[in-house]
Specification:
10 strands, 10 helices, six-stranded mixed beta sheet
Length: about 290
């Protein structure tokens, strides 16, 4: 797996997504089931109504017969990707990547994987400026739309109000919802949204994104921290505060994971210092469980 720093250094989100996803798939274990999935398994004759994108045109040119490539997953799904674009996502790790940078790479790779599976994939950017929503589609132009939206996204302000996010829960639809957030909230607003999404969509994969320097508290000596959403500052001696910080952080992470799982969310903590394979592995695992 390429490191997130190297993927980001490509300065090309479509290429980075493909490199990350294909690299992951190259090392993935093959499934035992057949369908429109990620690993080629066998051919079967074309039948009226089949998806022409799965037709093997080279074989048709050689044999004058039409066959479809069957592969490892037998169902297509609707996948809705959600990105928290509040200002706390601008926090930067020691590797130079912000949480938002990492989240863009991650969601682009997941979108690539979803389309590779034959899924309809959509994207919602959650920002105080308003909800930016791309409805789920499975056509060939969806990935460029999604990449363009991700590339243009900036993290600003606080997590949007419930009225802004109301369209996300306006109708009940069976889907796999993948939410990427650092879960920085003032009064449980992210938690309430995810609970409602769980009620209307059925399956929510929560990818809790934290920076490596947050998890390890790699700061040293006197330092001033500034809250990216409120602007408040705090001066501390990092070496003195490290033990207490680590203790409080671990307790908060345990409580956060427990609360999410009690609500029926599929919760996973990810670090911006680690490769993207953890997110892709959890996505495919959750997807297979839904099939």
């Amino acid at each position: 797996m390429l490191s997130p720093e190297l993927l980001y250094a490509l300065r090309n989100l479509p290429l980075a997504a493909k490199q990350a996803a294909e690299g992951f798939l190259a090392g993935a274990h093959a499934s035992r089931r057949h369908g429109a999935g990620m690993e080629f398994s066998q051919y079967r004759p074309y039948q009226p109504g089949d998806d022409l994108r799965r037709l093997d045109w080279r074989l048709a040119a050689r044999s004058d017969r039409y066959y479809l490539r069957e592969s490892e997953v037998d169902t297509s799904l609707t996948v809705n990707l959600l990105l928290d674009a509040s200002a706390s996502m601008n926090h930067r790790d020691d590797n130079g990547l912000s949480k938002l940078d990492y989240a863009k790479l991650m969601l682009a790779a997941l979108a690539y994987l979803a389309q590779k599976q034959g899924d309809a994939v959509g994207l919602s950017v959650l920002s105080p400026r308003g909800l930016q929503h791309l409805p789920a589609r499975d056509d060939t132009r969806q990935l460029p739309r999604l990449y363009y939206t991700l590339e243009a996204t900036e993290a600003t302000g606080t997590f949007p109000e419930a009225t802004t996010l109301a369209p996300l829960i306006a109708r009940r639809q069976r889907a796999l919802t993948v939410c990427v957030s650092d879960l920085y909230e003032a009064d449980g607003e992210i938690n309430r949204l995810l609970a409602r999404l769980r009620a209307v969509s059925g399956d929510v994969l929560l990818l809790h994104l934290a920076a490596g320097n947050e998890l390890n508290f790699s700061y040293k000596g006197p330092i001033t921290f500034r809250d990216l959403e409120t602007g408040q500052t705090l001066q501390v001696d990092a070496d003195q505060q490290r033990p207490a910080y680590q203790q409080h952080l671990q307790q908060w992470l345990r409580d956060t994971a427990q609360q999410a799982r009690q609500q029926g969310l599929d919760y996973h903590l990810l670090s911006t210092a680690e490769p993207l394979d953890g997110a892709m592995r959890e996505f495919l695992r959750r997807r297979q469980a839904m099939g």
